[in-house]
Sequence to fold (647 residues):
Amino acid sequence: MSKTLLSIGNLKVYYYTNRGVVRAVDNVSLTVSSREMVGLVGESGSGKSTLGYAIVRLLPPQGRIVGGKIVLDGKNLLELSEAEIRKVRGKEVGMVFQDPLTSLDPLQKVGDQLIETILEHLNVSKKEAYKMAAEALMEVGLPPDRLNSYPHQLSGGQRQRVMIALATALKPKLIIADEPTTALDVIVQDRIMDLLVSLKEELKTSIILITHDISLAAERADKIAVMYAGHLYEYAPSDEIVSKPLHPYTQGLIQSIPDVFVRKEIKEIKGNPPDLANPPSGCRFHPRCPYAIEKCAKEEPPIVNVGKERYVKCWLYT
Amino acid sequence: MVELEVSSLKKYFPVQKSFIERLLTRKKQFIRAVDGISFKIFNGQVFSLVGESGCGKTTTGRLVVRLEKPDEGKIVFEDKDITFAKEKELRPLRRKMQIIFQDPYASLNPRMRIGDTIAEPLIVHGIADKKEAKEEALKMLENVGLTPAHMFYKLLPHQLSGGQRQRVAIARAMILKPKFIVADEPVSMIDVSLRTSILKLIMKFKTLYNLSILFITHDLAVARLISDTIAVMYLGKIVEVASTEELIDNPMHPYTKALLSSVPSLFRRKREKVILKGEIANPINPPSGCRLHPRCPFAKSICSQEEPKLISYGNNHYVACHFPLLGKG
Fold:
């Protein structure tokens, strides 16, 4: 058994907007083992990105963590001071964002951004930092002379490689990748995912892959956590999620997506995702669920362990 | 019956240069967005154009409904040559050919009630008066699942979700009972759980009106689901065309194979990868010969010298490659 790297317990992240309180992440618990890739899957508004950013406490001003704990390697990140959490970001937890064009500084050379990150966290000379930056670029498959390029001189795939170099330069224990390939074409996406998987092995790090694409997560991640409307509804090894999904939402999701290699009947999930300022009572999926019973509208189901590393939050399994 | 036939279609866009660059160079540069493509769409069939961003698929879609003017080639719609037809000649044809755009946030007038948006084409084409148009629009709202129709009629686009807006765009395109539509990535901005219902809606109208559809997508899984024929584009050229099953089970062009081996799947049986070197080339100065040759693992010297023609390998399967991957599944 590998050891637990990250443990999230009963996390609540709410947004205080002028439309009311949006309960974007509500009572979510999740553990990530070391050297494991976890796919955090959900639609827009499911809370998957909020959960990802809450781990390093990077939330927009209206967002607040109102309860729960986030323990990384024995340290509760929610108890750290602002200065301490800043040291965790980058050094212990690397971030890869969806759109590298907006997350890289357009006026700074790629090399300078890498060197700045390294100098911020490590007590090394400029010369050493330069050497490390060049190595980090080679690590992601870019020639070291790209240190002198500006982001606009790179293609989308190359920019995402630079983002990954920034996230991995300090050899973090955990990488949070938020839709890292959504802006890219499939062939480039495939290369970038190959890179992430190989870096995971090489740096012995864990990765949380936030994505709307359950096929992508199923192919690359060891485990999949399915989120819907701020709740985590199922957490299981990837192959089991695909071959035997338990939660009606997971089942619906798998039945609703077309697949390139299998001609299958696709079925839609009825209805629309809820408004999180005013979520449905009980299980938040109940208005769309084909198996909903009276209890589902009244009481929120607990998340239960239903087998080795399998968790599901549904009254059908209690 | 052939609904739409396109032959040797070309569209080059001039490259915008800064003032100084214009002073320094006299040579005009062009992006070769669509560079000599031919295809046919049969009555009641779905023809998908698949490729990566910048391959020219969207430009092709805009050309065939004449939102862009072609440079060369021929577009024949219902036996009428519309390649260089003037706006006045096109107007009566616009009733029969409609387009659904990718972004339902940009394609609807934000200040118009959605019911009026749907009714407008009927009034513009002089088919109905205001009252009749409103009735038709209400029926259409029902048809696309926006009910109660009376309530939805009065809403503005910002009050709707992305999926609902795309339903409005479909309703507006369908109210004229067209014969042919271009659907340009109609589900790529829609949430996964709602995509299926939008695709099903398009297919419902396909059956209802015996529509022919040019479906533009980057997503091979979606293309597989809805098309009869798939054409793969790379840098302004069609590199392979075949019936859907044939193309997916038996891809012959290295590019098609590379695309297929990159698509994530829940049910992949084997993963035999074709890895292309580098990245997509610049459409301003595309590579000589076969445009894929600098990236292709199977390229030989002829590939950089001579452009391969799209030729038939039987079973209505056409490939433009000097060394197609025959019988390698």
Chain A has eleven helices and twelve strands. The first strand of chain A starts at residue 4 and ends at 17. The two ends of chain A are 27 Å apart (CA to CA).
